[in-house]
Amino acid sequence: MRTFIIIWLGQLASNIGSYMTHFAIKIWAWELTNQVTTIALFSVFEIIPSILITLISGSIVDRVNRKFLLIISDSISAISTLIIGYLYFTNQLQIWHIYATGALNGTFAEVQSLAYSSSISMLVPKQDYMKATSMNSAIHYSSVIIAPALAGLLYYLVGLGGILCIDFVSFIIGIVTVFQVHIPQPKPTVNSQENVRIWEDIIFGFRYLMARPSLFAMIIVDSLFWFVHDIGATLYSPMILTRTKNDTKVLGTISSAAGLGGLIGTLLLSIWGRSKGRVHGFLLGMIGAGVSKSIFGFGRGLVVWLPAQFCSSLNFPMLTSSSTAILLSKVRPDIQGRIFATQSSMQQIASAIAVFAAAWLSDGVFEPGMTQGGNLSYFFGSIFGTDKGSGMALLYVISSLGLLLVGLFGYAFPSLRNVEKIVPDYDAEYK
Questions:
Q1: What is the DSSP string of 342-407?
Q2: CB within 8 A of 254, min separation 6: which ones?
Q3: Which member of 117, 134, 171, 194 lies 3.0 to 4.6 Å from 78 by CB, making a disulfide possible if both were Cys?
Q4: Average pLDDT over residues 292-321
Q5: CA 34 → CA 29, 98, 242, distances in Å?
Q6: How far, in Å, CA of 26 to CA of 34, rounded?
Q7: CA 162-306-228 angle, 5° bins
Q8: Mean pLDDT, to the nearest integer, of 216-233?
Q9: Distance, CA of 55 to CA of 337 (rounded, Å)
């Protein structure tokens, strides 16, 4: 567990720097264009290369030293930050530069994520899987608390360039911590050592999951959830900035409330740390997030936004940690990279479609439809208003109600509800 904590601390520092940069770049791009499509394309250019590399990276993670992969991935991100910083300080930075480096970072970030997730079962005992995965959620939510507030304040003090410098230092911290520890490699089984063609290796994860319908059902429901979620997530920053006249402090405050809710959820999960009934944490987390986000979408100020965002984020550690812990306990370590890669590829394809859909629906349908005299304003104008941002708010609420429905949909299937009973743990299955 000590090695895991050392790596965890380095990744925490690295993530805080990265979140600050992402936050600052969104503000910079919104000030230039005021278009949801511009913000959405940041995600698209990160997701598409990641989709292409994901299934291959699963095979790489199962066969290549995971410590090496973590170091290389952080190093590439640090170099990308240097490039953006140079372009910014020489007044050459353009939107397409952000797209290009985002594509590069998205590729290697996926390898890093898989290597990190697949290393958990080699670094912590099985009874601590929930605690370890909840600590990973703490990385995300601690970053969400600290980074937006700092970036919102520093953006007008040191500018994007200063925030990029902080990000670069954070990557160095992440690299140094990984250098200092030993990450064990899983002992390969006979099957994992077989020489297979690339295509067979790519589809291995799908074949494995389809042979275990309960696990496959969990990942399908998970992908549906993130599809609907990412429609709303694409609208989140533009909607708040539009409704507050580009007040970055409000956006930072709401983001920090999200981080605080997630961190408290993580702490509660660490204390709870159950090894049974995790599927209920998975589905109830979806339902709770859907209810909270729906309330958020109806709000027009901090009085509603802050508590709704806090409550929404309270659910996500339970949701993500539960599904990850189930997979860690059901899939043997030497093939976890490929299984997590399959899960990730399905989520990313869903997310890419969601981002495109959100941008098109917002800029082309909902925003025009919610203006004074627009088709949608007749039905929803009294609820959401008819000023700029009203269309985004309506679409955000629709997507949030979708999260609630996905969670309820998951409970309708006995194979998913009973996944922990139906699928044996890998040590029981392969004794």
A1: HHHHHHHHHHHHHHHHHHHHIIIIIHHHTSTT-TTHHHHHHHH-SSTTHHHHHHHHHHHHHHHHHH
A2: 240, 302, 305, 306, 309
A3: 171
A4: 92
A5: 8, 16, 9
A6: 10
A7: 90
A8: 94
A9: 9
